[in-house]
Structure formats: C-alpha cells, structure tokens
Design brief:
Strand content: 15-25%
Mean pLDDT: 90
Structural class: alpha/beta
Distance between the termini: 57 Å
Number of helices: 10
Low-confidence stretches: 369-375
CATH topology of the largest domain: Rossmann fold
Order of helices and strands: EHEEEEEEEEEEHEHHHEHHEHEHHEE
Number of domains: 2
Largest sheet: 5 strands, parallel
Helix content: 25-40%
CATH class of the largest domain: Alpha Beta
Strand order of the largest sheet: 12-11-13-14-15
CATH superfamily of the largest domain: Flavodoxin domain
Radius of gyration: 27 Å
Length: 375
C-alpha cells in the first residue's frame, strides 16, 4: 500500500489542458494523463531503455513511448496485451480544491517480462579460420530486369579472386535484394534512443539489414564495398545502409564501446562522371569512424569524366578492361594481407580516448616478442 505523502503538482485547470505530460515529483519522473475527465499517473521511465513516457502520446488507453513505441496502460501501468508483465509503476492521483495531488510512492511495482536478447547482441568473437571477406553491392536496379553494373562486375571479380586465389571465406550481400527500412532518426530523439542492436532491427523481425550487421560486426575481417557514382555521391542504397549503420558508430560516441575490432575496409567506385575523390573521402571517413583499418591504396575507381555521357562505351570499357579487373584483385589482396596481420595479433579490449578524434589501439606482433601496442 502506498504511503500517503501527497504532493501538489499544479492546478486542475492548467494540467487538464494536455492529455499527456511529463512532471517531476521530487526526483521522480512521472507521466501524468488526463483522459475521460480523470487524472492518472504512471512512471515516466520506460522499461525498455528509459525513454520519457510523459513526452510520448496516447493511443487509446495506452501511453506510447516516444523512443521505441513500447506501450503501457494509462491507469494500471501494465504493458499492452500480450506484454502485461512489462509493467511500469502506477501512482495514486487525487483532486482537492482545484489542485492535482500525486503520491510519489508507487502504488504498484515495476515488473519486466523476460525478453531473449537479440542475436546481434552477443559478444563479438573471432575463432580460427581463413580470412573472411564480405562484399557489399550497393547499386539500385529493377530486380526483374537487371542491368550490367560496372561496380558489381569488379566486385564479383574481386570476390572470386579472394576465394579462389587467396583461399578466403567469402559472402556477397546485394543491398538491392534486401528489404530494410530507412533510418528513422532515433538518435535525433535522444542519444540513448539509438541502440545496439539497431532499434529498428529489434522491433521489426522483417527488417533484413540484420544480414549486413551480422556480416560486418560478427563475421567479416574484410569489408569490400562497391558503389556507382550517382549525382556526385555514392548510390542511394549505400547511404540508406550507412544511415542505419550509425547505430554502430553511436556506440563509440555514447557508450565508449567499439564493436568492430581489427577489420579492414576497401572500396570499388565507378561512375560515368567524375567525383571519385569526394565519394571515396566520405566512405573512407565513415568506415574509419567505425574503427576499420585501411589497406595501402584503399580504393580503386574508374570514371571517364564529366563530358562522357556515352554510357554504353563506359560499360564496354569496364567489361573489357583486364587492368581494372587486376586492380580489383590487387585491392582485395591488399585488404586480406592487412587482415592477416591483424588476425595474428593478440586482441585487446581498448577504450577510445574521449577527447578529440576517436582511434583504436592497434595490436601487432613485435619481432621476437609479445604483441606491442601502437597508439
């Protein structure tokens, strides 16, 4: 039974103007609800990752968390049907002399339904075995009527070389084959609202970007990305993927948690018009922010320049160019060589420096001795 220590939180006339609002009772954050002429109050802290329920919205009788849409009954605090065990505390409310009084002592406990952790949430562990190369194809096209893609052609050649000549384990992911949602800006709501695993991936079992997360965080040693140039930038699917991968980078910023250790990134960039260095710069910058290492000369590129609008000649040139294919093979070989050095090192759990730029410590075997740290 709640101890009766009522606290005045405001005038009825003022508080009834909003169906849902956040209030503070001492140090306790509450969601105050006014519905069907009656006040009620539940904890303002969501069971999921602490979202502010009082800043959410009402959906019928349920308060919807503004961060990840978890729902709690506005009178009882119980979770939505099927998730009643996920309950937030409710607080007694009464009205006296035109004032709203709330008891800060919970009238019911906070309870949590047992949820199996998402598969991506497991520790990142790398066992023995040959280098692993994931190729990520980013061109967007009509799957029913596919066209020749110059960046895809070079990626496929590089992946074949990695498997057949270098003995690597390989997998190819075509973003065009995946159904995945755009980033919905959870970080814009609050830094803590952007979670790992990705909030969307946790909420939507049909979202297929989990295959990319699984490959680049848990599986691959080398990440080889191929993109065409589209209006001076990488492909739209590349940016759609990159925005969703912010959840990986945000873990470094928010929690000082580096998910990607000792991984190598390299890039294949092709386009009919010239903006190679700008496209490469964005890609290099982003994957460096994730903690990836770069091989010497970390990208290959091809472009015939601004005035070359005869795309059929561009396609024919790439299709017939042994030099470009050799360049793709050498690129993946350089990446594998760096990955082998990193795989031979003793892994460490290193935290990043908070001030200024973020950077890994790199373990490399010292000649004749244990691994040495290079900062």
């Amino acid at each position: 039974m709640a101890t009766e220590q009522w606290q005045d939180v405001g005038a009825v006339e003022e508080l009834c103007s909003k169906p849902l609002q956040q209030i503070m009772v001492g140090r306790t954050k509450l969601a105050l609800i006014f519905r069907d002429g009656q006040f009620s109050a539940i904890s303002g802290v969501c069971n999921h990752v602490g979202g502010p329920l009082g800043e959410g919205r009402l959906d019928g009788e349920y308060v919807v968390c503004p961060w990840h849409q978890w729902k709690f009954h506005c009178r009882t605090g119980l979770g939505e049907p099927g998730y009643e065990e996920d309950a937030v505390p409710r607080h007694d409310v009464k009205v006296e002399n035109g004032r709203v009084l709330v008891n800060p002592t919970p009238a019911s406990p906070r309870t949590r339904k047992s949820h199996e952790p998402h598969a991506l949430a497991r520790p990142v562990e790398r066992g023995a075995g040959p280098p692993r190369v994931v190729g990520i194809s980013t061109p967007a096209m009509d799957a029913a009527n596919p066209r020749y893609s110059t960046s895809d052609a070079l990626l496929e050649y590089a992946m074949d070389h990695a498997a057949r000549i270098r003995g690597a384990d390989t997998q190819l992911i075509r973003l065009n084959d995946l159904k995945f949602r755009h980033c919905e800006g959870y970080y814009s709501k609050s830094s803590r609202a952007c979670t790992w695993p990705c909030s969307i991936t946790q909420m939507d079992p049909g979202d297929q970007l989990d295959r990319v997360y699984e490959a680049i965080v848990h599986w691959a040693d080398v990440i080889l990305i191929a993109t065409p140039i589209r209006w001076g930038g990488a492909s739209s699917l590349y940016y759609k993927m990159i925005e969703r991968m912010n959840c990986i980078q945000n873990q470094i910023t928010i929690a000082n948690k580096v998910l990607m250790h000792n991984k190598v990134a390299a890039f294949i960039i092709t386009g009919g018009q010239d903006n190679v260095q700008a496209v490469a710069g964005q890609m290099l910058g982003f994957f460096s922010e994730l903690g990836c290492h770069l091989p010497p000369f970390p990208y290959i590129a091809h472009s015939r320049g601004w005035s070359a609008e005869d795309m059929e000649r561009n396609v024919r040139y790439v299709a017939e160019s042994q030099e470009l294919r050799d360049g793709a093979a050498d690129l993946v070989s350089r990446a594998i060589d760096v990955a082998k050095v990193l795989l031979a090192a003793d892994p460490v759990e290193a935290r990043t420096t908070r001030g200024g730029r973020k950077a890994h410590r790199l373990d490399v075997p010292a000649p004749g001795g244990p691994a040495s740290e290079i900062k």
